[in-house]
Amino acid sequence: MKKNVLILAAALALVACGGNAQRKAVTADSQETVAAAPDMHTAETSLDYLGTYEGTLPAADCPGIQTTLTLNPDGAYKLHMKYIDRDTELDEWGRFTIEANQLTLYPDEGEPTGSYRVEENRLRMLDAEKQPVTGALAENYVLQKTK
Predict the structure, then answer these.
(1) 3-state secondary structure at position 52
(2) H helix runs in the chain, sequence order
(3) Angle 72-78-82 from CA coordinates, rounded to 5°
(4) Alpha-carbon span 93 to 145, nearest angstrom
């Protein structure tokens, strides 16, 4: 009788351990799946990018360009540029898109006029190759969110 009880206890112990190994494997697989999920955070889904941005952008032939860019919820924008120490002011209207944290302005007339990287409460102007400006003046190519 003791022999039968020992065999039964050993069998139960083996079954209990084997089932736990399977659960551990399933748990490990599900954790790997969760860890492998791609990060879907983008400017369009994560940042509050709508509003008004202001700053003074560098210019080659004057002290700078006072720039105001307003992004509206309907996808429209207004860009106002005033050249410092000049009587020149320009206004532009159009639509904007955001893809992969990059804002692109499409005026009502003509080709796209500018691209910006969307950051927390600011827009960083991009160069012709759609890369951030680098060097000593890099921080001068940023528009700060005001509203």
Answers:
(1) strand
(2) 2-36, 43-46
(3) 145
(4) 19
Q: How many CB atoms lie within 10 A of CB 112?
A: 12
Residue 120 DSSP one-character state: T
Task: Cite the beta strand spans of 3-137 per DSSP E.
Answer: 51-57, 65-71, 76-83, 89-99, 102-107, 114-119, 122-125
Per-residue pLDDT of 64-73, as tens digits, reads 999 999 999 9
| Alpha carbons 80 and 70: distance in angstroms, whole number | 9
Pair 57, 141: CB distance under 8 Å: yes
Region 47-74: mean pLDDT is: 92
Model-level pTM greater than 0.70? no
Please give the Cα distance from 145 to 117 (Å, whole number): 13
* Tokens linked to 117: 């990287």
Task: Measure Cα distances from 16 to 13, 41, 70, 96 in Å.
Answer: 5, 42, 65, 61
pLDDT tens, 3-47?
A: 443 444 444 344 444 444 444 444 445 454 444 444 444 444 446
